[in-house]
Design a protein that fits this description.
The structure is a single chain. This protein is an alpha/beta fold. The protein has 2 domains: about 5-95 and about 165-249, Rossmann fold, CATH 3.40.50.1000; about 100-160, Alpha-Beta Complex (Hypothetical Protein Ta0175, Chain: A, domain 2). Helix content is about 35%, strand content about 20%. A 7-stranded mixed β-sheet has the order 4-3-2-1-9-10-11, with helices on both faces.
Length: about 250
């Protein structure tokens, strides 16, 4: 990891770092590799660690390298980027919030229409595929009353998390732990599960292919830039907007 990074780049994966045309992705990944001692790169994704490992393997031929750090499971996991080994100091407080919660939630979740469990390996969240036409939104306040937070994103995914845990809260805790300057941080994302990152007040980039439900929040997010370009090209556009042009020299 760079000792004094000039930029802390925090990127969602699907639709963001993995989004855009292959030539643009290849160019951006090459830049990330070249700037590894100046740019601290963090994946911040809804994927679990096994899925992240598959992404790194599948996209290695076009130049994607492991990040320095990973925030996975919509904020419920923190891991080393290279080994993907969880970092106990960061994960243990989340584990404590999760303990006992699944047992309280089970009677509410069983048999709910429009929900199908995703095949993920996290122990600190419940991840579902959702059918919006069948899902009953009245379930959400019941889950919240038991100590859970709920995130519906991309009109396809429904995550049940320990209350107070999300991409934004875990990112802020990580920045504090590493004593990193908030002014050097830029986040990037495209779906509603990235909203918590943008609500931190850190600089943010909504890439051009962001879902409309996320873009609708833009008026109340003064530190967030809406890019015209999609995926990796949108991240690059946002970095230029925030004055990190010198890193492209």
């Amino acid at each position: 990891m760079p000792e004094q990074p000039e930029l802390v780049l925090v990127t969602d994966l699907d639709g963001t770092l993995l989004g855009g045309a292959t030539p643009q992705r290849r160019r951006f990944y090459r830049w990330l590799a070249e700037q590894r001692q100046r740019v601290l790169h963090v994946f911040c994704t809804g994927r679990d660690l096994e899925s992240i490992a598959r992404v790194l393997l599948e996209d290695e031929p076009i130049g994607l390298q492991a990040p320095h750090l990973v925030i996975g499971d919509v904020g419920c996991t923190v891991a080393c980027g290279r080994s993907l080994a969880p970092i106990s100091l960061a994960v243990d407080p989340i584990e404590a919030r999760w303990r006992g919660l699944p047992e309280r939630l089970a009677p509410l979740m069983d048999g709910q229409p429009g929900l199908a469990l995703q095949p993920v390996s996290s122990n600190r969240r419940l991840a579902y595929f959702v059918d919006p036409e069948l899902f009953n939104p009245a379930l959400i306040p019941l889950l919240e009353a038991e100590g859970a937070d709920c995130v519906l994103s991309d009109n396809r995914y429904f995550d049940v998390l320990p209350a107070g845990v999300n991409k934004g809260s875990t990112l802020l805790a990580l920045l504090e732990w590493l004593e990193l300057d908030h002014a050097a941080v830029v986040t990037a994302g495209d779906t509603l599960n990235d909203l918590a990152m943008f609500e931190t007040g850190l600089k943010g980039v909504m890439v051009g292919n962001a879902e409309p439900a996320l873009v609708a929040h833009l008026p109340r997010l003064p530190s967030v830039y809406l890019a015209r370009a999609e995926g990796c090209a949108g991240i690059a556009e946002g970095l230029r907007h925030f004055g990190f042009d010198h890193l492209w020299d």
